[in-house]
What we know:
Oligomer: single chain
Low-confidence stretches: 217-228
Radius of gyration: 26 Å
Number of strands: 15
Order of helices and strands: HHHEHHEEEEEEHHEHEHHEHHEEEHHEHE
Strand order of the largest sheet: 2-3-6-7-8-9
Shape: elongated
Amino acid sequence: MMAYREEELLARLEKDMLHPDLLFTKDYIEEDGVTADTKRRYEEVVLEWLLAHGDGLVKTDRNWSMYRTVVRRASDDGGKLASSILAQKDFARGLALDMGILLKDGRTEEWGSFPISSMDRMGRVLTLYDVRQESEKEMPLRRLLRVWSWKESVNRLTVASALGVTGPFVLKASVLVTGASNERYGRSEGRSISLPLRRLGVLLGVSELYLFHGIHLLPVNPGLPLYGQYTKAELLSLIEKDSAHPESLYQKDYINRRGVTWDTEEPCCQVLGEWLLNHRDIWMTLPRGLYRRVVGMRTEKILRNDMFAHIRRQKVLPPFGRVLPDDLVFLGSRFQQTGRPAMMVHDVTGEGKEMISLVRVIEVPESSDTLLGAVLRAFTHLVMLDGEKLLKEMKLPEDSRIESRILLQEGESQTDSFLRDLPCLSGLMQAMGVGLVMMEKGYEALW
Length: 447
């Protein structure tokens, strides 16, 4: 196979995303290649792109082939392993189910199978297991995408009917590797999974586990079912502990983690947002003045921020008024710069006693931000401002209100995820004076 250039590889991947259920069958995922120009591994390039475009890894009526789900008894088809697991009843910190899944494609040929399954004790999460021998050679990314494709191809209504389940449940899948020596648990080598691959696995609801046979421990406080997934109580415990230092909340991993809680299946941002809405007073202790003003044009040249440079050249940013000459740089506790500079725009409406003066601080989110993380960063910056001093220095009306806006780019996957989380956080954002704005270019009718 001739090596792809990185640009060719990404173009091929983007085209193949039209049918994500077939991604694992593509040559650049099946084989361990290196790009012809940048010398990066195919898996590294593809993983980076998939993590940035995770919103496309969703099954729809238009992008998925038709597969038939056949529910069978694990005790009939799973062999000795299934029988042994069923005999002990407990498995994977849940209950072993006498249920296997066979998937058939449109030609009624076998597409995939999950010979073993288990359900958590609350009946909320069903896990299907793809059993593989350790000796089998398969690229890690291919294995992940294959099991995800099979999982998403399962007809949940068919499974729910077979189980007699009437309420909603989460469907997950795991590769169960068998035949490995128990001694592997005493070694560090061979057990690590790359962080990008782990992150994609969390996003897709797919994990990899090794089957252990022997004496082992069951934690009294059960561990997490998947890397990075929290219960509601754990989330609340973490934020209560970290609330002693609210200036660093937006940097916490759990703040910028997408998904739902393990037990209540509430969006994590909703659980955290509701707590923060009721505890906004934690920011009252933050020191003021941890910022400095810098000449905007100089900042944008140094950072090569073409978007902000273009805005500054046009001098206004409708409908928010005129662009102020200075940017704001926010400082950490040791007075080092944290994050990107923020642009300021000023708008005045009305006259006399009815005059309203508004200063908006416009920030661009980091690529790793969730909406909640971006909102907390923006609000933390607002709290750090010495508003009275800043307005006086900028020769603006002393009764001006200062708010924050997070700038989004149309068509970005991050923008889509922000808009999905917006209903869960709109109350918190309104209370904090933080909003979202979308960049547009062209003609518009404005007041």
